[in-house]
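Lecture notes, continued. The same structure-token format from the folding unit now serves as the input rather than the output. Read the line below as a description of shape only.
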């Protein structure tokens, strides 16, 4: 790995770690300050606002690649026009989508007993926050295209810290009405910082997008829409689950699901963040494969599969074992719904993280069809399960109290099955035997590790019991991991690094 690639990977991982920790503190503080029911109502509106992110049509992701090409060609005027065109397009499309969704909100989000907590301040705060987030992300994408991951990481960390400071000062005084204010400040500060960095790198570009061109915005739709299909399906899955939980009057479970979802997403992104900057290496290996040398491409893919599965299994098993400790830290007590949310949500992100090498290989080869189909299948399967659940409730109303847990189970199934199908389909397409992943051994070790993590939460809900039990379970997970193929690879790599003989 080159020095610049390693720095980019380190910057991406560090930013993910800090912003994830800040986000978890943000929502943990809101849960303690507002209570899970009140927070659940706000999260339902936030979920609806996040659906509007689909309106950017993948232009942000398209900008990264197009900006990199313009930079490599030394075409500064085109680079500036690309950035300005994307900023204007996303700002307008997001604004219109937010106005539409927030206007339809009372018909889409039914909060039951919590309906009184939906005044104009909450709706306006969510809309402004989401709009600022997407506009800031466009400027961050431009910097990523210029290979300035370090500046993106620094700007995002500064924004996250500013948002946390705002949260701590305002929520204790004004409550749920200003729940979005910390995030508004976060994205405003990071967006302005991205703008300032772009001005330093591109002095010809002003603060306002004066060089926008419709033709350039339209050019980015092809690749952008294919990537947006993958990203948007997962966003819709999250939002649909939250809206269904709100309609089932399970606002506390909604809050716990959101916390577990954020922890799972943060852990997954932290584990795969460094891999994203390796996509160019996969692309180069794919080019060699096209000339008849497919061995290096397949070897790189299989190595990443083995190592990533070991990492996600270790991290998510340990995280599952800490569920009761997280509950004690955020709620002061352990509730069954809290543990249930973690048991059904963390496996979603573990499985999705484990198949990330397939996504990387598809991006490196430029063949995104399999990834798009898998993400579309996730959304389609969830809608099918939700429809079946609604039909069952119409015939057996007594099932209504179980609607919340059933929704979380539907999310787990709708993500897991297409991910496994994508893995099988990729191996078949590449003519790689499935045995190269040691599926039987991996499944046995995986179930054992998750059983150990889940078992900790069956013990007494006391930090003096949960703490030592979690440490013991974490050590047991490490012992179980020795049964995976990647353990030998890691041991050999460490021995080489320490200068010890391989035997």
């Amino acid at each position: 790995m080159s020095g610049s690639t390693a720095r980019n990977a380190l910057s991406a991982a560090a930013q993910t770690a800090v912003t994830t920790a800040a986000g978890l503190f943000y929502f943990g503080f809101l849960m303690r300050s507002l209570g899970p029911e009140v927070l659940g109502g706000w999260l339902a509106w936030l979920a609806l606002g996040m659906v509007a992110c689909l309106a950017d049509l993948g232009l942000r992701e398209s900008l990264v690649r197009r900006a990199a090409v313009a930079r490599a060609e030394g075409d500064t005027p085109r680079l500036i026009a690309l950035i300005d065109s994307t900023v204007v397009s996303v700002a307008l499309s997001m604004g219109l989508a937010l106005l539409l969704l927030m206007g339809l909100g009372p018909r889409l989000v039914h909060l039951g007993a919590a309906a009184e907590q939906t005044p104009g301040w909450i709706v306006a705060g969510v809309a402004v926050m989401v709009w600022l987030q997407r506009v800031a992300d466009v400027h961050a994408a431009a910097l990523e295209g210029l290979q300035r991951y370090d500046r993106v990481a620094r700007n995002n960390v500064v924004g996250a810290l500013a948002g946390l400071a705002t949260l701590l000062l305002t929520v204790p005084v004004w409550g749920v009405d200003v729940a979005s204010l910390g995030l508004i400040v976060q994205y405003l500060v990071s967006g302005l910082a991205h703008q300032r960095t772009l001005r330093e790198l591109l002095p010809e570009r002003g603060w306002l997008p004066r060089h926008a061109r419709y033709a350039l915005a339209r050019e980015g739709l092809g690749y952008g829409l294919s990537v947006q299909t993958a990203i948007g399906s997962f966003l819709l899955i999250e939002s649909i689950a939250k809206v269904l939980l709100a309609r089932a009057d399970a606002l506390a479970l909604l809050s716990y699901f959101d916390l577990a979802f954020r922890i799972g997403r943060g852990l997954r992104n932290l584990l795969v963040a460094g891999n994203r900057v390796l996509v160019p290496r996969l692309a180069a290996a794919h080019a060699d494969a096209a000339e008849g040398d497919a061995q290096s491409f397949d070897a790189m893919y299989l190595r990443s599969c083995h190592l990533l599965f070991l990492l996600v299994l270790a991290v998510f098993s340990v995280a599952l074992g800490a569920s009761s400790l997280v509950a004690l830290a955020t709620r002061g007590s352990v509730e069954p719904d809290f543990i249930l949310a973690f048991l059904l949500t963390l496996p979603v992100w573990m499985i999705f993280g484990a198949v990330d090498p397939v996504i990387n290989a598809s991006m490196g080869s430029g063949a995104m069809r399999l990834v798009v189909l898998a993400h579309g299948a996730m959304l389609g399967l969830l809608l099918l399960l939700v429809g079946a659940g609604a039909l069952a409730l119409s015939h057996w109303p007594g099932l209504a109290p179980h609607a919340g847990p059933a929704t979380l189970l539907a999310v787990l199934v709708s993500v897991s099955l297409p991910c496994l199908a994508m893995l099988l389909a990729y191996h078949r397409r590449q003519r790689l035997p499935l045995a190269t992943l040691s599926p039987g051994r991996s499944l046995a070790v995986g179930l054992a590790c998750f059983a150990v993590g889940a078992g900790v939460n069956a013990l007494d809900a006391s930090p003096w019991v949960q703490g030592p039990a979690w440490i013991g379970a974490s050590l047991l997970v490490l012992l179980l991991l020795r049964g995976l193929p990647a353990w030998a690879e890691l041991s050999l790599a460490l021995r080489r690094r320490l200068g010890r003989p391989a035997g």
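Point for the exam: Residues 76-108 form the longest helix (33 residues).
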